[in-house]
Amino acid sequence: MTYGAAPAPFAFDNSYTQLPEHFYARTAPTPVSAPRLLALNAELCGELGLSFETLSLDAAALFSGNVLPEGAASVAQAYAGHQFGNFVPQLGDGRAILLGEVLDAGGRRRDIQLKGAGPTPFSRRGDGRAALGPVVREYLLSEAMHALGIPSTRSLAAVATGERVYREEALPGAVLTRVAASHIRVGTFEYFAAQEDRAGVEALARHVMARHYPEALLSERPCLALLEGVCVRQAALVARWMQVGFIHGVMNTDNMAVSGETIDYGPCAFLDAYDPEKVFSAIDRGGRYAFGNQSRVAQWNLARLAETLLPLLDADQAKAVESATAAIHRVPEVFQKEWLSGMRRKIGLEAGEPEDLALIEGLLEAMRQGEADFTLTFRRLCSAAQDSAGAADAAVRELFSAPGLYDSWAALWRSRLAREDVAPELRAERMRLVNPALIPRNHRVEEAIAAAREGDLVPFERLHRALSRPFVEAPEFAEYALAPRPEERVLRTFCGT
Ligand code: AMP
Ligand code: MG
Fold first, then answer.
1. Short-list 169, 178, 171, 173, CA closest to 160
2. Probe target for ligand 1 pocket from 127, 137, 255, 497, with the most ligand atoms within 8 Å of CB
3. Span 282-327, pLDDT tens digits
4. Whether the model pTM is above 0.85
5. Is 254 marked active-site?
6. What residue segments make up the domains of the chain, in order of their start?
């Protein structure tokens, strides 16, 4: 395979490689034998100001890493991380290569990264590759999250490599092209802090402020403003996850982007029946990253970020600790506020009353006991809010294993709704904008992956199309709205690395 320079499809404008040399390792993708394009995201090409037509000409070569586009940085980024609570001082991009940064059509800086592009100096014993299943999974899930309005890395392309990767079995390999506001993680800060590289932490903090938190640069205490900014975005992000039933699955500090985007889709999943203790990931044996633990874990991770910034917060150590502690202690409050306002909208409330929290918790408790499907319950409540008698109510009730669970709650809900002067049709319409009809249901994702592994991309493409408009009930996609039958239910997910 020749390794040439492609015409310049990207107008790279690389800033990360202007940081000190020890922030990254220069490394090139390893060519693959038979690259075949699986997906190219036309909408995202437009957003990035790339020509879909030009890119499609040579997409397989470009997005497999077989040709390196002109001006590419081509580096693996260094980072550390707390994995399941244990600190690992050096992780880094073991199978990802940052091609470079572009300014998108809106002037925002975006990273273009190849994931699964071959070994890097950070690969340790790994092969630097990704299997096709997890690539298809990340493509579907990240694009679905974006369509749901949740900050997320995006997927620009997926290419099958024509080579096998060896996990528990031999699997087809693939490369994902990921687009992110940046790939800087809490673990990136930890990498320099663990080496007591104060200048490194400071340079990183400056870069992150300029890139993601420019308002912090104007603050009297820029690094404190940075910490507070990351805390607010992360708390809001996790609140958004929990409003759609998303479980990240591996919230290690190396999988938390300081930009506030959802990143590193591994064994993530969406709730079917509501259960705050739900864990899908096969590697999460203690339930550290269970659905209902996510806001606490985010706070724990943010405390690790705060520790790395301590020397920059104040010359007086006690004062630095005090400011950092105050910022971290505010995380639950920010989370709760975001979560509550979103949940209010989900049940059709506009103004806030102090009892709303109890009302929302009452619904969730009834759903837990009644094993009600998370997405369907909220979606069907939209119609029930419009039509209090009859069919719409029955459609919600039937989701609960014991109908009384819903009925007792619905009586309280209706008396609360009556205190707001909103036309029922309008209320239902607004509810339908926040309660998706379609989420990437685990069994549908698995079905699309299984077909893609056999070379059939039709289920993947169809599911992807359906998920691009999650708030619309399109009759042609009705099957994707359904909860899994018991035999279809996915019980475990794997990160597949
Ligand atoms: P992840 O579980 O994907 O968040 O990755 C955790 C760490 O393991 C990161 O440093 C990855 O770069 C590295 N890693 C995961 N899979 C591989 C692989 N197949 N080859 C090399 N490094 C890997
Ligand atoms: Mg990761």
1. 173
2. 497
3. 999 999 999 999 999 999 999 999 999 999 999 999 999 999 999 9
4. yes
5. yes
6. 2-183, 192-339, 348-432
